[in-house]
Write a structure and sequence with these properties.
single chain; two-stranded antiparallel ribbon; disordered C terminus; Spore Coat Polysaccharide Biosynthesis Protein SpsA, Chain A; alpha/beta; 12 strands; 14 helices; 14% strand
Length: 497
């Protein structure tokens, strides 16, 4: 065997071991996620979310909504937030130098007037041009500032937030009416809690009436359906398990609840990275552990944030490139935590996993695909073995994808129609043949984008949620999805796993 053939053979043995270890990790995460959701469903009847929502002793929340060119959806998003079933909250909209009519539609919808509002902290941000309040809706505050990016906008929101908890969501998002009480329950049940993430679901394809979400459906767009399956795998098949083991490193920037004082203490969001949400979570872990303070950062799968996902390949590629750059920067900036026992399982387990399988992994996968095909073409790997390996890998990926769809159906039933489930089943197949490989290439390419010094988030075209009449809350009326009635409090039996 010449040196080149020896190299190909050795690398493919390494790839086989790599794939086996990765699939084993996925299996452990999926099983742990299944058990955690099963435990949650069984305990759900004893969680009194209504008392949290109605009690004057509940911790109030400032909802921060950074908005950049969100004219089509911002008013509908705010109307849905105003319908949240929670006793005390405010909505702080940060207009981050939008170039469209975002500020104009806000003024028209809520009759904004300029006011003086003194910041409660001094996180550095771009200049705030004006602060507006609404005489029609006292819970709404709008900050108009010079463009500085999402992290800078969130820091401006933190500065002007009045309440001890802040919820960071995207300007194109909608919350279920009961979402806040479920997240706040986590803080009040465990005072050492620093941050809680909620699940993010794809709203594309769902039906709206007067800007209200009245029926959840899967879209006809293939790319959007693929992302639904991907989100389910990420949240139910991964994030639940990481949270249960105390190693959660990522809270989605689209929906998370944080303790304001601790976030101010660590310096707020980092404006020099495109992954400011994940970087903040890891910095919170590091800050609390360096000071010997308790740090509970968890994920809760029930409160829902609905958001639009890309429906064209170009936008999806830009989005995933940003996400990958954020992960790379996060690990690089906190590399001192790697393999350090003082940082517990975060430094010794979670970060090494992210380094090997999330940061370096896409490059290993892409090189592995190429060399595997080359080895088969040269006869180094028998064709029968290659086909058997691919069949096993595909079958295993399908099993994991079908498992998370089953978890979703048995525990939450957000997609009630058979046609929706059939679309997801088909996409579970497509996701493992082509889609995941495409994303591996995109994520590998992020190294090139990062080397060029590209820190831009780019823009995503929003369809919006349609016109909204005053007083609209997010409604999901199909298959028990009405958020105005907790299924437990209404006397219904929760779906059992």
């Amino acid at each position: 065997m010449d040196p080149f053939e020896g190299f190909l053979h050795g690398f493919n043995v390494f790839m086989l071991s790599y794939v086996l270890v990765l699939q084993l990790i996925y299996t452990v995460l999926a099983i742990a996620g299944w058990r955690a959701i099963e435990n949650y469903v069984k305990r759900r009847p004893v969680r009194d979310y209504r008392s949290v929502a109605e009690s004057e002793m509940s911790m109030p929340v400032s909802i921060l909504v950074p908005a950049y060119n969100e004219e089509p959806s911002i008013v509908a998003s705010l109307r849905s937030l105003l319908g949240s079933q929670f006793i005390e909250f405010e909505i702080v909209v940060i207009n981050d130098g939008s170039k469209d009519g975002t500020l104009a539609v806000l003024k028209e919808a809520f009759g904004l007037v300029e006011v003086g509002r003194v910041p409660r902290s001094n996180l550095p941000t771009q200049r705030v041009r004006a602060v507006y309040a609404s005489p029609l809706e006292p819970r709404i505050v709008v900050i108009d500032k010079v463009n500085g990016g999402k992290a800078d906008a969130l820091n401006a929101g933190i500065n002007h937030a009045n309440f001890p908890l802040f919820c960071a969501i995207d300007g194109d998002s909608m919350l279920d009416a009961g979402a806040l009480s479920r997240l706040v329950w986590e803080f009040q049940a465990a005072p050492e809690t620093v941050a809680v993430g909620g699940i993010v679901r794809v709203v594309n394809g769902s039906m709206f009436e007067n800007g209200r979400l009245v029926q959840v459906r899967t879209p006809r767009n293939l790319l959007a359906n693929l992302q639904i399956v991907e989100y389910l795998r990420a949240f139910l098949g991964g994030r639940v398990a990481w949270s249960k083991s105390g190693m959660l490193m990522i809270i989605s920037g689209a929906f998370g609840l944080f303790r304001r004082d601790v976030c101010v203490e660590v310096g707020g969001y980092d404006t020099t990275t495109v992954g400011e949400d994940a970087e903040l979570v890891l910095r919170l872990h590091r800050h609390q552990r360096e000071r010997g303070k308790p740090c509970r950062i968890t994920f809760f799968p029930d409160p829902i944030c609905w958001t639009e996902c890309p429906e064209d390949l170009r936008t999806l590629v830009r989005q995933r490139d940003r996400w990958q750059r954020g992960i790379i920067e996060m690990i690089a900036r906190h590399r001192a935590m790697l393999f350090r026992p003082r940082f517990g399982r975060i430094g010794c387990v979670a970060m090494p996993y992210f380094l090997v399988f999330e940061v370096i992994g896409p490059t290993i996968e892409c090189v592995g695909y190429t060399l595997f095909v080359l080895a088969v073409a040269l006869g180094i790997i028998p064709l029968q073995f290659a086909l058997a390996f691919l069949a096993i890998a595909l079958t295993y990926g399908l099993v994991l994808s079908f498992l998370v769809i089953l978890m979703e159906e048995r525990a939450f039933r957000r997609y009630p129609g058979w046609s929706d489930l059939m679309r997801l089943a088909v996409c579970a197949v497509v996701e493992n043949i082509g889609y995941r490989q495409l994303l591996a290439v995109v994520r590998m390419r992020a190294w090139y984008t990062l080397a060029r010094g590209n820190q831009h988030w780019g823009e995503m075209t929003r369809k919006g949620f349609g016109p909204l009449l005053p007083g609209g809350a997010v409604e999901t009326v199909e298959a028990g999805l009405d958020p105005t009635a907790d299924p437990v409090l209404a006397g219904e039996t929760p779906a059992e796993l």
